[in-house]
Amino acid sequence: MAEYLSHCFNQLSINSIKIRSFGVTEARKVFSSSVQCVLTEDKRRAVVKNGKDSLEICRVVNGMWQTSGGWGRIEQNAAVDAMLQYADAGLNTFDMADIYGPAEDLYGIFINRVRRERPPEVLENIRGLTKWVPPPVKMTSSFVRDSINVSRRRMDVSSLDMLQFHWWDYSNPGYLDALKHLTDLKDEGKIKTVALTNFDTERLQKILENGIPVVSNQVQHSVVDMRPQQKMAELCQLTGVKLITYGTVMGGLLSEKFLDTNLSIPFAGPPLNTPSLQKYKRMVDAWGGWSLFQNLLQTLKQVASKHGVSIPTVAVRYVLDQPAVAGSMVGVRLGLAEHIKDTNAVFSLVLDEEDFSSIREASEKGKDLLKVIGDCGDEYRRA
Q1: Which contiguous run of DSSP H or E holds residue 142?
Q2: Looking at residue 74, what DSSP letter applies?
Q3: Calpha distance 12→14 (Å, rounded)
Q4: Distance set, CA 338 to CA 66, 85, 161, 332, 341 (Å)
Q5: What pTM does this model have?
Q6: How far is residue 138's CA from residue 144's CA, in Å, rounded to a whole number?
Q7: N or C end of the chain: smaller count of CB under 10 Å?
Q8: CA-CA distance, 311 to 231, in Å (whole number)?
Q9: Rounded CA gap, 57 and 301, in Å?
Q10: Angstrom distances, CA of residue 65 to CA of 7, 69, 103, 330
Q11: Phi and psi dihedrals of 194, rounded to 5?
Q12: What is the pLDDT of residues 12-36, one digit of tens each?
């Protein structure tokens, strides 16, 4: 880590300010004066900021990947009704993507319901975060503009609260062109904040070097996957860029449902019958296997019982309390299941040092996924 930070300090250039041979204190001063990313928060909300760009979000974000298929049939009216229930409960930040099936369309219907049926102050606090996952084509201004206009129409908003940009292949430098065009659209008022999703530390540094004012990076992060607290969090703390995390409850694996189960015996445990459960079971295997995962669940259960909450509540709180994390995703199966009570309990839960120590110890018994998988987002780019 020291070698990595030394490399960053020797190489990093932000807004034409070159950093050479600085220590941590000096580098922090330069970043804070040039980038000016700050986080202010209460128990429920946080502000991600870069210069004049800022957005206040709920610290627990409703993830809408589950609308893309594989979790059960989504019925439109029931899904929108459920979105209203989450918003009414104060869980008013929704995360989606252009590739998440009808997610952006559902948001558009939902936001119009809010405009018609809720007071103005409710509308003012709703946030819709979306992602753009483009194909590997030339990133011209017109292509980027047309793509973003599709999301604006689907979500029925004049300006996207946050556009989180994903890029598959780093060997193609077109991601910098795309981000510069997105910044132009932000300056025109089509986007309020520009952010990233699944970028690694090296590329985040390069993007900042090019003067692109990203406010956050959405990455996979849980008590099993602690990779963001290595290289990524170090750079984020220096620059002010924040992390929005997903996979925080591992698709439901981090829950009482999977405690004291043995998946090696056919039909003995709960089925891994959703794309997210299957995805995060592979992460468990890479980390250390099901038996070790049971030890982690038992530790989380002890902490949860101590505080009168559930395992997922503890899992989310633990990640929210990690450095550089502004918000954490909890997937919502709209119209099929809801976890509003457990989710809201996150805000009142305070983990003490004993809790942190026991969870950290159980987590560190597994493998270092940075060595196994690579940095944040590398799981999408390695064969």
Answers
A1: helix 141-155
A2: P
A3: 7
A4: 12, 9, 25, 7, 9
A5: 0.88
A6: 10
A7: C
A8: 27
A9: 29
A10: 36, 8, 8, 10
A11: -105, 135
A12: 333 333 333 323 333 344 444 344 3
